[in-house]
């Protein structure tokens, strides 16, 4: 589940990349998503890991970066026309990326069937499933709330970003939330 958390944290990288000097919310969102696609590993590292965490396990960092690269480089997106009111914009986006919900469901099935198999490498299984040429994809839509401050459009982190995070992670955000909810007391 550390990989799931790491991928979800990658969403934070997208938000930090919004601080670009774009004069339209569509252009700012396009720049952020294009930067994610390019796989700038230093952007991933600087946003996801704190100084304390980054020194603790460098091999995991490299593995996480490969997973981010696989997820985001396989992503395509289409940005719709923003609805702008004063310094706030609602920007529709359609994202097609790896179907992480399906990949993780299949992983859990495989992991449970290999509980006693000491040779089973779950991280490798996930990486291979993500890298497969025939890996399932999903297309999800979201509306991104953006605010304009100092003539720069940025994602509004105080808005509900659940559907955007879910679209970026190929359904992984919602899937992990549903698993978490199933273990919580009602």
Write the layout of secondary structure elements.
Blueprint: H1 2-16, H2 25-38, H3 41-48, H4 51-54, H5 58-73, E1 76-79, E2 83-85, E3 88-98, H6 100-113, H7 122-131, E4 137-149, E5 152-155, H8 162-168, H9 172-183
Antiparallel strand pairs: 1-3, 2-3, 3-4, 4-5
Would you mind describing this structure in some detail?
The chain has 186 residues and is an alpha+beta fold. The protein has one domain. Helix content is 54%, strand content 19%. The chain is built from nine helices and five strands, in the order H-H-H-H-H-E-E-E-H-H-E-E-H-H. Strands 1, 2, 3, 4 and 5 form a five-stranded antiparallel β-sheet that branches. A hairpin with a 2-residue loop joins strand 4 and strand 5. Helix 1 crosses helix 3 and helix 6 runs antiparallel to helix 7. It starts with a helix and ends with a helix. About 13% of the residues have low confidence.
Strand coverage percent = 15-25%
Share of residues in helices: 40-55%
Query: Count of DSSP helices?
Result: 9
Mean pLDDT: 78
Q: End-to-end distance, in Å?
A: 23 Å
Q: How many distinct domains?
A: 1
Write down how many β-strands occur, each being a DSSP E stretch of 2 or more residues. Answer: 5
- Principal-axis shape equals elongated
Oligomer: single chain
User: By helix and strand content, what is the structural category?
Assistant: alpha+beta
Radius of gyration: 17 Å
Order of helices and strands: HHHHHEEEHHEEHH
| Spans of at least 5 consecutive residues with low confidence | 17-21, 41-60
Main beta-sheet annotation: 5 strands, antiparallel
């Amino acid at each position: 589940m550390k990989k799931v958390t790491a991928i979800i944290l990658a969403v934070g990288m997208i938000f930090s990349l919004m601080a670009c000097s774009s004069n339209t919310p569509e252009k700012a969102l396009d720049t952020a998503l294009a930067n994610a696609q390019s796989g700038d590993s230093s952007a991933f590292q600087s946003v996801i890991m704190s100084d304390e965490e980054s020194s603790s396990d460098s091999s995991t960092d490299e593995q996480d970066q490969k997973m981010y690269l696989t997820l985001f480089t396989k992503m395509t997106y289409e940005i719709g026309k923003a609805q702008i009111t004063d310094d706030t914009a609602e920007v529709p986006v359609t994202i097609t990326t790896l179907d992480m919900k399906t990949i993780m469901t299949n992983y859990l099935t495989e992991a449970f069937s290999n509980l006693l198999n000491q040779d089973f490498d779950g991280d490798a299984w996930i990486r291979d499933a993500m890298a497969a040429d025939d890996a399932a994809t999903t297309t999800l839509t979201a509306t991104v709330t953006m605010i304009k401050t100092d003539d720069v459009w940025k994602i509004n982190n105080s808005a509900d970003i659940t559907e955007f995070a879910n679209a970026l992670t190929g359904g992984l955000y919602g899937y992990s939330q549903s698993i978490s909810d199933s273990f919580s007391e009602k």
